[in-house]
Structure formats: structure tokens, C-alpha cells
Amino acid sequence: MHVYICICVGVCLYIHSFLKSFIHYRPYKFLLLNLTSYTEVRLTKNGSSQCEGQVEMKTSGGWRTLCASHWNMANANVVCRQLGCGVALSTPKGAYFVEEHDEIWRDRFHCSGSESFLWNCPVTALGVPACAHGDTASVVCLDSRELRLVDGGGRCAGRVEILQQGSWGSICDDSWDLSDAHVVCRQLGCGVALEATISAHFGEGSGPIWLDELNCTGEEAHVWQCPSQGWGQHNCRHKEDAGVICSEFLALRMVSEEQKCTGWLEVFYNNSWGSVCHSPMEAMTLSLICIQLGCGDSGTLNFLVPPREGSRPRWVDGIRCRRMDASLWQCPSDPWKQRSCSSKEEAHITCADTPQLRLVDGGSRCAGRVEIFYQHSWGTVCHDRWDLREAHVVCRQLGCGVALNAMCCAQFGEGSGPIWLDELQCTGEEDQLWKCPSLGWGRYNCGHFLDAGVICSGFVRLDGGGGPCSGRVEVNSGGGWTPVSDGNFTFPTAQVICAELGCGKAAMVLGNLPLKEASEQVWAEEFQCKGWEPGLWFCPRRACPGGSCQHSGAVQVVCSGETYGSTLTFLHTLLWQQNVRLTKNGSSQCEGQVEMKTSGGWRTLCASHWNMANANVVCRQLGCGVALSTPKGAYFVEGHDEIWRDRFHCSGSESFLWNCPVTALGVPACAHGDTASVVCSGKGGQASPRGKTHPEGSSLDSRELRLVDGGGRCAGRAEILQQGSWGSICDDSWDLSDAHVVCRQLGCGVALEATISAHFGEGSGPIWLDELNCTGEEAHVWQCPSQGWGQHNCRHKEDAGVICSEFLALRMVSEDQECAGWLEVFYNNTWGSVCHSPMEAVTLSVICRHLGCGDSGILNSSVPHRKDSRPRWVDNIRCRKTDTSLWQCPSDPWKQRSCSPKEEAYIMCSEKLRLRGGDSRCSGRVEVWHEGSWGTVCDDSWSLAEAEVVCQQLGCGSALEAPGEAAFGPGNGSIWLDEVQCRGREPSLWACAAALWGQSNCKHEEDASVRCSASVVPGVFSLPGILCMILGALLFLVLIILGTQLLKRRSEHQGGA
């Protein structure tokens, strides 16, 4: 009999387990498979996916376009970044790229602009009206990829390489022809293609092979817009790398039978070598030519050499190099011509060496191994007799202050090449090292292991700024460090100092710095640097009258290379605004003709070869965002005597215009009015009312804005992310005009209220802005006039806040229940009810989760309707499984009267308590809902008193048992409660004393459970129970029959006896 009972129980348990796994687990698995909402995004134009076009997002229903309502540059920048297309240039409105689509997705994205993916942005759909056909969101991105030609001897010839995903890679030569090469040349501003080279003509590259089987028409703006196999898709090796020779490729050489640095000067242009004409060829031009050819630093024209025979182009004449020019290509000249002069005027040049001195491998130009350039070779100095007197001469000659140490024995490493000088015996007063007595040039009795070195004080330093790249300017010529006065100190001088110290560009010059002592003297000279000198020592100087410079204190310089840790560091969107500008109607701003400051004053730039890449560098340099356009013709033309014709060849990624390659050789004069112009996306620093400053900003500003502690993204304390720290705004002068800018910037409609006195609580960290005076039209709150970044007289009790028109909040209205009541939404500064049609299960679940009231709910239609008057804001809410809050659910548009009072929604959410793992809802492991997830309760101190509260709270009668040690199996997730101590009469489990939420020393093997009295009935009459009863009855019947048969046989046996 025991065997049969065991079989029955086993069968029942198996059936129960199977039904449980089918009924309870399968729906959860289905839910997980449908959590994906947005999976891909693309920009499409004429059916192709690229870096401009209408925005399309892949959802479970396929590709859908997005609505242009509330679409802005912040959203667009996220899309461009996600697609690897750089930054957004514009968001064209209307039917710019419109293609036919059945439905436009109306979800609104509220990106800050810093997100990596569009689906990281907050989304709203509740109350959003349907989108008109054709009103689709579009974006034009500025591609962040770069293109270059390498190993060809110049920027316009070489192996084609593309920077993609942070790596430079080549192009395979399959199908490579002049049409493809034309696109490369045009993109680089190198004219047209003369030759499309194959088979690694310029050497094999390394890294990825990015493109193969290109099939350009020749009209594309970027080579990656041509049809191809796709990024990284190829069947090639680097021996098949493609190359290009463009028409503007330039090269320089000396032609001579036997000498390297003497001969006929020839230039490679338009795919042909030709001679250079010698008029006027002044000393500076000859010096630059010799330096470029590696033939010393001076040269002479040789007029005694007979003219050459043979025919060749004579490409260029009238070359006039300037001190700022770093190569012959930057020197102005007459335009390129096939016959620029007669054959008798071809230039024959002899270059010569003036000995040069340098220090190497010491970490700066003023420390290292001593090397001399002589007879076309760098060589070293032997340390025999080497002491501070020789070292002083070296430091003085290099403009490096005084010698601190004379190093011997190759302490900066062994040099190579000749050992030029040995046994030097300087007095210390010589102006050049080779004027000291020695054994003579190239005469020595030592090896490179005895190479001499020097550590100099340096001529200039920046002191007291918290780092080597900011502080008071001080110089040293042997008498100690002396401050430089702020009288007539110029930005070009600051540039030379920053460059000499390896600190980048000059960011700011500050005067009026008090001297350390009243008796302290300033340097008795004024420096008049042009900006291109190799060091401050080499700048022109003017002695101050009477040896005393007029000043109001010492001068202080902040360089761009300074770290954020310095107290004197500023964002370098301010960098060098004094040296390039955009002017329109006489004012400097973020649109207008491009002007550059040279030694001759402000000059406009020529529009020839001016393009969007150059324009983007200018906009970035001025803190004006990105370039939107480069208007041609007389768009902003103002009168100027001369137009600067230097051509800039920027890639678009440079920080400053002068970081770009420049050519001027052969560039023709610019026609009057043909000036380069730019329209940038930002608003920059226009003149401020009330004499205040504009903290700089642009549409691509790295700063961020948020509203916090207001219950939603559109209400709260205003905070700005600046220099890596979130800080608040002071409420002095804070009003609706300021608040309007905040709301518009966040895509939150208009301001309903500008709160003061820390209405949303006191913030922490810096107070970034004070005394804001916005007009209400600014794009960013930091573009409003203010006291300046960090300038204030406030405390956090004065933090400013905002309530915007699109601030949304949700609540349940009930007299005594937290998770049941009338559903109300805060919209347009007013609480109003929500209509219940159609309110399906998914919608109710989203609402309850949103309110932290479990994960399911029901509509209660039996509650009498309310009589008070209030808005009934929204109806027809249809949440999707992918929506994480009510704000993301589609609905009818917001209306004051969306339904009748009888249709207001009264919702009852499931309690925050449940039992799991048992054989009914009234027995099992105790689980509670907290902070958006289910977790368990530890069995420490768990008894019938605690179990009684759980059973009563769930309506499951009285507690029969309070088992611990995970009697119904261990749970997962958090262990929310521990050390719960109830008296047995509390209304809910969380009314009992317990440790803090989430604070426990337990594992899930200690999960608490209960078995309530109401669990007996469902246990008996459940399907498995009924089956067991039937099987039990059958067994009992079988036993009766067996018993009857047994008794009958026993009776027959006794009768027979």
C-alpha cells in the first residue's frame, strides 16, 4: 500500500512541476525576447545609407522615419556620432530628403548631445500628436574620417590612406582608375589626378585595407562615398595598395652632375620637372631653399654658370619668401606658367653651411648632448677640458639662460657622426662655441662615449601657476630670474613663450599681477616677437627708457598645454581669437568674411581653394561650433586693400587654422571681392548688454545642462556641467527670460516658473553663473550675459530652478492607499486625470512600475466618479512592451477635456509583496518589490509573528508555518529585508522593524517563507490535488476489491476445512 501511495505522490508532484514550469516560466521567457525596442539607426538619401539624409530607426515593425517635431542639433549630433559620421552640420526641415513611408514614428528624443547612441536619450510619446506626412527628421553630418597621401614626397602625391575607426588604412587597386583618383585629388584640394598608381607604387602600407573595388564617377565629394565592397571588405594584400599623383603635387631638387648642394634649382609641378627663375631671390628666399633641401642655412646665386641647353618648363618667378614661411611652397610668387622667364634666368644655387648648435635628448631645447652642424653633418663635442665656462657659452648662444651643469661621458646618450671639436678652452665670454680655442674642426682623440652635454637654466619660464604651462613670465640671462612687465606685452610674444616651453598655443595673457616685493625690479626690455621665432631669446627687443619699463605689474601667461588641474586653466575655445576672426558689418562674430592678423594688420583671405574643411577649423577655433556654409562672392565683402592669397589645406580636424598645410607658391593674385566667408552654427561672443561677459558656447559645446530633484527632466534645480563638474546657477536676477532659455535648450517647451531660493533643494559643487541677463532668445544658457564662469557672491541656498511647460509627473490620488487610486498626470503646470480607454494590461503594468507599485494593475470601474472639476489631460494610451515609462507610450494629443468624468481611470496596482515557489499564492518564498525589482527576505529573526503579517497582508488567512533556509527554493536578485521583527498586528510587512533596505549579511539559502491557512484549500482543489484524489480513490477501490477477494478466499478456505 505504501508503494502505491508513493507512486501517486510522485505522479502528482511531476504533474504539478510540469504545469508550474509551463504556466509560470514560459510567459517570462517570451517577455525577455521582446525587450528590444530600437536596434539600428541610419540616414537615407535616394535609397542609400550614408552621412546625410532622413533619419530612420529600425523597430520591430521594420524601418521607420522619425518626426521632425522637437528634432534638434543635440539629437542630430548623437546620430552622427553613432554612425561614425562626425558631427552634425544641420537639421534640414521640410521635404529635404523625404521618401515615401507608410508611417512616421512620432516618439520624441530629448538628447543632451553627449550620448553615444540615440536610444540612450530620454524619449517621450505621451500626448504627442500624429506627424504630418513629409515632416520627417533629417540630418547633414560632417564626416570625421580623414584622407591623406603618404610616401610621395609631398601632400599631393603618394599612397592613398583613410583614417577610419581610429586607424589609418589603404585602398586596394582593384578597379582603381583616374575617376577614383580625381575624387581623392579634389577632396584634398590638390587639383586633378594626373596618374592613378597601382601595385604599391609608393610602397606598401600597413594596418587595414579599408576599401576595394571602388567605382567612382569622379563627381563624389569624398572617396568613401563611391560604390565599393564596403568598409574592410576586400581580397587584397598591401602589395596592391593604390596611389595618386595630383596636378598640384610639388617637389624640389638640385640638378648637378657631382655636387649635392649646388646646382640648377628645379620644381616638380603638373607632373613635370621644370626650372625656377632667379628674380628676385633675396637672401631669405635662398636660405629657405637651402634649409628645405637639407643643405645648410644660406645660399648664393651663381650667375657665372652658362645657361643650360635643352627645353624644359620654367615654372615660376618672383619668389619672395617671408620669415614666417617654413617651406618654399608657402612663399608668395608669380602664378605658375610654362615660360615664366628666359633660359638665361634659370636659378643656379650654391648652398653653404653656417655652423649651427643644438642640444638633443635632454627633454627640452635647453638641455642635452651638445651637437654642431658643420659641412652638412651633425656631430658632437668631446668632453676633454669641458666645464661650466664652455657650458655658459653654449647656453648663452642658444638663448637658454645660464649653465647649471656641464655634463660629461655621454650622460644624454652617445651621439653619431663626426666629433667636431675637442679640447675647448673658453673664457665664458665668447658668443659662439666654435670661437673658443680648440684642436680644430674634426681633430679629436676621444670616442662618442665621452660626448659633452649641458643643462641650462632656460631663458624663460612661467612661475607660480600650478604647472610649467601657466604663471608669471620670468627671464634669466645670468643674474637670476626676473619678472617681465605687462607694459606693451603682446600675444605673439606669449605664443613664442608657450611654443618654446612645449606648452602649445597661448590661451590668455593676464596683466596687473602684483610683484612679490615692493623693491622687485622688472626686466628692462620690451619683447617685440612676431610669433614665429624659435624662442623668446631670438625676438626683437626694445630697451625701456632710462632702464625702467612702464607697467602696472608683472605679466602672466596661460598656455593651451596647461592641464585642467591648474587654477588658471580655461577652456581653449578662447584660444587665439585675436589672430583670426569673422567680420560682418564691422563686428566680429560667428559669420562673415575670414580675416587673419599678420604683421601688416588684418587681411581677408582669398576664396580660391577655400572649403568646408577650412571653414570648420575657423569655427572651432573661434568657439562657434561647426561650419554651415562657405558663401561665395560678395556675401560679406568689406573694403580691404589687399586680399591674403595663401591657400590653406585643412583636413577639418585641426584646432587652429595655422596648423593646416599652407601653399602660396604660384598662387595668382585674388580678384577684389573674392574673399573667403563662413557661416558657423554657434553664436559666439557678440557684444554684451550691461558690459557683461558671455561665457562662450556653440551648438557642439561640451558643456551639458540638466534639471535635477524636480521629479522629471523638465523641472528642477538648474545645473551645468563645466570643466568636469556639475554646478548650479545663482538666483540673482533670475527670471522667466533666463528660465525660457533653459527650457528651450532642454527641449522642454517654455518656462512656466523661474524658481529661486533653492526651491528644489540646495545643490553642491561650484556655483557656475550669477546675475544672468538673458534676452530669452539665446540657444544656450551660458551664452547669456553674466558675471563670468565661477564669478558670484552666492551660496547654494540661492540656487535657481525652473518648471517648464513639458514637465510631466504621475501620481495616484487616494485617501488611504499608496498604490490604488485615481491616476493623475501633471502637465502644463496643472494636475489632471487620465482617461481609461483602452488601458490594456501592458499599459497598466507600465503605470504601476512607473509608480513603484509592482508590475501589474487592474482598472476599478465600480468606484463612483469624482465630482470636482479638473482637466482630463489624455486618453487612448497604448503602451508597448518596450516602453519603460508612461511618457514613452503613444496616446491621443493633450487636451483639456479628453473624456467625460465617468471615464477617468481608477487603478489598483498589485501589492509590493508576493509568495513564490509554493503550491499556491498563499504559500512560498516571501518576495518584496523595492526600487524597481523583486527581492527576498532573510530568515534571521523570522517567526510566526512575521509570517502572520505577510498572510494577513495578502488576504491568505492566518500563518500556519514560518519556514526558513529557503524551504521553497532560493530566490535571486537582491535580499531586500533582514532582521524583520513584527508583533503580528502590523498592516504590512514594511511597518515592522527591520534593518535598512538592502542591508543584510545573508545569502539566498536563508530566504524566508510562509505557509498560510488559505493555502490548504487551493492545495486540495488544485488540478494536481484533484488528480491525486482520483488516483487515491482508484487505489482505495482496488484495495477494497483486493480485500474482498482476500476475505472471500479466506472464507472459502475455512469452509473447505
Automatic annotation (TrEMBL):
Membrane spanning stretches: 1021-1042
Keywords noted in UniProt: Disulfide bond, Glycoprotein, Membrane, Repeat, Secreted, Signal, Transmembrane, Transmembrane helix
PROSITE patterns tied to this protein: SRCR_1, SRCR_2
Disulphides: C67-C131, C80-C141, C111-C121, C172-C236, C185-C246, C216-C226, C277-C341, C290-C351, C321-C331, C382-C446, C395-C456, C426-C436, C498-C559, C529-C539, C606-C670, C619-C680, C650-C660, C730-C794, C743-C804, C774-C784, C835-C899, C848-C909, C879-C889, C938-C1002, C951-C1012, C982-C992
Stretches assigned to the SRCR domain: 41-142, 147-247, 252-352, 357-457, 460-560, 580-681, 705-805, 810-910, 913-1013
Cellular component aspect of the GO annotation: external side of plasma membrane; extracellular region
Protein's name according to its UniProt entry: SRCR domain-containing protein
Cross-referenced Gene3D superfamilies: SRCR-like domain
Subcellular localization, as worded in the UniProt entry: Secreted
